[in-house]
Amino acid sequence: MADVYEQGRGQRTRRLRIFAWAGAGALMLLPLVAMRFTDEVKWDGADFAFFGALLLGVGCTYELLARKSGSATYRAAVGVALAGAFLLVWANAAVGIIGSEDNDANLMFGGVLAVGIIGAIIARFQPAGMARDLCAMALAQVVVALIALIGGAGAGEPIRPNDLLLPTGFFATLWLASALLFRRAAREQKPTNAAA
Asked: CA dist 29 to 16, 23, 48, 194, Å?
């Protein structure tokens, strides 16, 4: 009976993976379709290459990390964290969070991602450590925003607090949501290890 359950779960997982990669391919086509209907979207080969590399990087990272645990909660936590990282890089590259995309102050957000990467390596991708790491990323996100506001980053461009606080709140919420999911995955893992 357990074999039948595992086989059914494996088929669902395979279907989800196919659906996710097909979705990434569809995302690659969106700008191409948009360019046919509006002059607002003007992508060249470099834009498509960057977007494709970003999608491929996030997809492959998810594939590797999702295999570390059979827990759906762990996989969801990884998915939320990677979606946040994808959106942070994309928002910075496309329009910038602090002023325009050309503002060097936006490079500070690379520090948020560095906190996540280094913390994940130190935690060895274990859920309890990842929960702490994602909380540190949320804190780093807020610190970058405070540095930008207090230091007058983007002084050449008018920067209103709402222009920075809304994205900061959005990304900090994503990091904290992922942290909560990792925390739940750690709790789910403990009874299994205790019984072994």
From this structure: 20, 10, 9, 48
pLDDT score for 155: 52
Q: DSSP of 6-37, one letter per residue?
A: HHHHHHHHHHHHHHHHHHHHHHHHHHHHHHHH
Q: Do 127 and 186 meet the contact criterion of CB atoms below 8 Å apart?
A: yes
Contact 77, 185 (CB under 8 A): yes
| SS3 letters across 87-121 | HHHHHHHHCCCCCCCCCHHHHHHHHHHHHHHHHHH
Question: How many residues are there in the chain?
Answer: 196
Q: Which residues contact 151 (CB under 8 A, 6 or more apart)?
A: none
Q: Are the C-beta atoms of residues 133 and 168 closer than 8 Å to each other? A: no
pTM check: above 0.90: no
pLDDT (tens digit, 9 = 90+) per residue, 2-27? Answer: 454 445 556 767 787 888 888 888 88
Rounded to whole angstroms, the Cα distance separating 55 from 26 reads 11
Burial class (CB in 10 A: 0-12, 13-18, 19+), 113: middle
Which residue in the block uniquely carries the two structure tokens 């990434």? 24
